[in-house]
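Structure in, sequence out. Go:
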């Protein structure tokens, strides 16, 4: 009941706000959930739009709750893009309500379900971490481009050309990742991470992935899950595991200690960007830079 009341207040606040949503300089105002989506919008729209992401560095979208400050940003937006596939679990109801008064688009909606990975726990649900298969993520550019074009048809050709150029960049990156991962000996291509964010990465680039937690950081894991993962690492003689920038290191540190108690020394191979990028203006603060940083960390630790 409290959640429904809060949701009602949130939507009522947005309805009652000023309906003038364009920025002061007349640009389209776009708000996204994650930085990865914001990066697509920036590459397609360039300087013709104003873009901001709700979720910054180190933020876990599975657990994220909209703040009062977010309400103003959502109200001022001409367009709202979110991932979909239940990534932003706690904001799902908010987006459903906002669709009645705003252009609210899940970028994953144009992806054929046959290309998606099933959620191993929840029936009829999919793994939302689609940005880790670069070729799949590139397909979401069409959804962004079509939405911007519909809202701003004057710049349609501009958006189309930018989208084409960015798509080529991502497909080039996709091939680079394939080449880099292949430098890891086949018997060493096993990634152990804090949660199951990298299954698309594993499928696309031929590397086995195991996460302690499930696809969502909301999922629970027990002692048996921890023991099973420790035994797997020891059996396979895996030399490195990875922490994630948006997930606590506590559980992975427990895995490392469990391996050492069994006489198997293992190291933290590095910090991977999973559900969030780095700060804007840093090398890892854009999608391409984030992917390259992850791949370099993985290759260096596992070779």
């Amino acid at each position: 009941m409290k959640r429904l009341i809060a949701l009602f207040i949130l939507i009522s606040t947005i309805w009652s706000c000023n309906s003038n949503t364009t920025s002061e300089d007349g640009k389209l105002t776009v708000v996204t959930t994650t930085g990865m989506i914001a990066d697509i919008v920036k590459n397609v729209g360039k300087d013709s739009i104003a873009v901001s992401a709700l979720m910054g560095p180190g933020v876990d979208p599975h657990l994220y709750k909209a703040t009062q400050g977010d309400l103003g940003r959502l109200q001022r937006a001409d367009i709202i893009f979110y991932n979909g596939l239940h990534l932003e679990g706690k904001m799902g109801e908010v987006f459903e309500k906002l669709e009645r008064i705003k252009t609210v688009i899940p970028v994953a909606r144009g992806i054929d379900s046959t290309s998606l990975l099933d959620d191993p726990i929840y029936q009829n649900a999919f793994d939302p971490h689609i940005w880790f298969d670069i070729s799949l993520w590139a397909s979401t550019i069409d959804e962004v481009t079509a939405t911007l074009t519909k809202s701003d048809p004057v710049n349609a050709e501009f958006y189309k050309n930018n989208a084409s150029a960015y798509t080529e960049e991502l497909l080039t990156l996709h091939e680079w990742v394939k080449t880099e991962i292949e430098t890891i000996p086949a018997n060493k291509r096993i990634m152990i991470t804090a949660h199951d964010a990298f299954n698309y990465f594993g499928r696309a680039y031929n590397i086995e992935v195991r996460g302690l937690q499930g696809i969502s950081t909301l999922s629970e894991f027990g002692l048996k899950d921890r023991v099973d993962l420790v035994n797997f690492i020891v059996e396979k003689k895996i030399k490195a595991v990875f922490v994630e920038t948006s997930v606590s290191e506590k559980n992975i540190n427990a895995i490392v200690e469990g391996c050492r108690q069994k006489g198997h020394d293992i190291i933290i191979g590095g910090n991977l960007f999973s559900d969030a990028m780095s700060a804007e203006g840093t090398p890892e603060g854009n999608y391409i830079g984030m992917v390259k940083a992850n791949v370099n960390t993985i290759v260096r630790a596992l070779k």
